[in-house]
Amino acid sequence: xxxxxxxxxxAARHCPPNVPPHRQAQRAPLCRDxxxxxxxxxxxxxxxxxxxxxxxxxxxxxxxxLAADAARSPSAPTMAARRARSExxxxxxxxxxxxxxxxxxxxxxxxxxxxxVFTPRGGGRRDALSLDLHGGGFVVDSGSITENVPIAxxxxxxxxxxxxxxxxxxxxxxxxxxxxxVYRAMLAERPRRRIALYGTSAGAILAGExxxxxxxxxxxxxVALGFFSxxxxxxxxxxxxxxxxxxxxxxxxxxxxxxxxxxxxxxxxPARASLHGWPPTLCVSxxxxxxxxxxxxxxxxxxxxxxxxxxxxxxGLPHAFWSYIEAPESNAAFVAMARFLRRHLEMKR
Length: 349
Hints:
CATH architecture: 3-Layer(aba) Sandwich
Distance between the termini: 50 Å
Largest sheet: 8 strands, mixed
Number of helices: 11
CATH class: Alpha Beta
Number of strands: 8
Order of helices and strands: HHHHEEEHEHEHEHHEHEH
Structural class: alpha/beta
Helix content: 40-55%
CATH topology: Rossmann fold
């Protein structure tokens, strides 16, 4: 599709930097023409990518789910309306999930932080559980239900979803503080309890930040990290962000979340510090995920740091597709996530 444009873009990216001074004036028009050609080719590539149809390999259910998502009205005019709509979508999908998987949900408070507790059929184990940090761009809750019902059922363990404080009313480190409070409380209740940590999108970013904070405080770490479509460095949008969204949007989210803190601070972007000693990590993304580059980059850095890390990439699907469409592909993603988490939850300390 777009492959024909790549040679033109890369060949025309720069004029040679070592042009002799007496030839610079002669080359200036050529450089301008090349610059225009590069810009036009890049714009054409972006248009082609944006207009590309979903691949034929997607299941009918996935295509229907994506069509339904595209047909939803544009973003709500106020933050309160956005949050209410996200909550309604979650509860609608979540109700079907709970019926399908036989999972119950309860609203509780742990260490003063609101949480949702998902219990699988049979009650789940008490010596092992999973902690989820939901997605939603730090400003809405778009996954505290839909990300967790399948995981509770497929791991056979209780899942606690932290309903952390949201930006812009509560900027960094409010959400991280909430996550840390819940983790400490669960560990204090049962010091030998095995806890797996995972999150999607903004929740994956928070999960990475929580690992970094726990290491700095020399606390016992989760036995595993599920890093699902996230970023370890908010200062580097990555190529997939440029292709499927835009770098400006990434910087805007980082600023909204970080407030007056520098996004390059390792407390916010933990990949900018040492990753040695992180728990085994599974990264999950998809080929049309605007955080694919960032997810893959963290996995590579973890591998370089000697951390057992792997990446699963689903073909032809968008960002965090598992949290809002009901399809075989979403089920496959949850099965892969649960298999990884269950394996580490069942190991003895």
